From TrEMBL:
Sulfotransferase domain sequence ranges: 4-200
Protein family per UniProt: Belongs to the sulfotransferase 1 family.
Keywords tagged on the record: Transferase
Gene Ontology MF terms: sulfotransferase activity
Descriptive protein name: Sulfotransferase 1C2
Gene3D superfamilies: P-loop containing nucleotide triphosphate hydrolases (3.40.50.300)
Organism: Caerostris darwini
Listed InterPro entries: P-loop_NTPase, Sulfotransferase_dom
Length: 209
């Protein structure tokens, strides 16, 4: 993404191991990836080599790391959002502009509405309702064109996965990588993490386990 001092950016960093597991589930549940029967071991190899849809995790993080204290960049961590979303929202409001934090200070319900409607469970339920392929099938002519195209595209893949099982949001947990990584995989990712993040604060954000 071209960087401009005239724009405001929000960057959310996340533990690379959790990113790997999260993207694995995303790929399996999106027929467009063609990975519906994929195994985690195969996905891990793609992740650690940086052979991903949006490029290498570490390169992406390092590209934005130097801007973490820029006045027009709001830099936070996924784990902080899970731990104290209220504080993150308040800081984000201050970053976006005086009118945003004043709106929250004037009416506390604004803060709680932001937290509720940007929360994981709300988004999960909302996405499931929007992308309910059974509903799209039933009301095909009434749903937005984008959903019509999506349904036809998914059908063209001849995926064994039921259309009603397409999911955009999984669990959103922190630390779930421990259920998936083998000892060898953990050691390999730790090695790359230490090499790529050498000399950065990221090593303190995500201590090697």
């Amino acid at each position: 993404m071209p960087y401009s001092t005239d724009a405001k950016y929000i960057f959310v960093a996340r533990n690379p191991k959790d990113c790997c597991v999260s993207f694995f589930h995303h790929a399996r549940r999106q027929p467009g990836f063609g990975f519906w029967d994929g195994e985690f071991n195969d996905f891990f190899e793609c992740f650690i080599e940086g052979d991903m849809l949006y490029g290498d995790y570490f390169d992406h993080l390092l590209d934005w790391y130097p801007h973490r204290r820029d006045a027009n960049v709001f830099y936070t961590k996924y784990e902080d959002m899970k731990r104290d979303i209220k504080n993150v929202v308040l800081n984000l409001a201050k970053f976006l502009g005086k009118e945003y934090i004043e709106a929250i200070e004037k009416d506390k319900s604004v803060l709680y509405n932001i937290i509720e409607y940007s929360g994981f469970e709300y988004k999960k339920n909302k996405y499931e309702a929007i992308f309910d392929m059974d509903r799209v099938q039933k009301d095909f002519e009434q749903v937005p064109y984008g959903l019509q195209y999506m349904k036809e595209f998914v059908q063209s893949l001849n995926s064994p996965r039921s259309l009603s099982e397409v999911q955009y949001v999984y669990k959103g947990n922190a630390g779930s990588w421990k259920k998936y990584f083998s000892v060898e995989q953990n050691e390999r990712l730790n090695k790359k993490f230490l090499e790529k993040m050498k000399g950065t604060e990221v090593l303190q954000w995500y201590p090697v386990e």
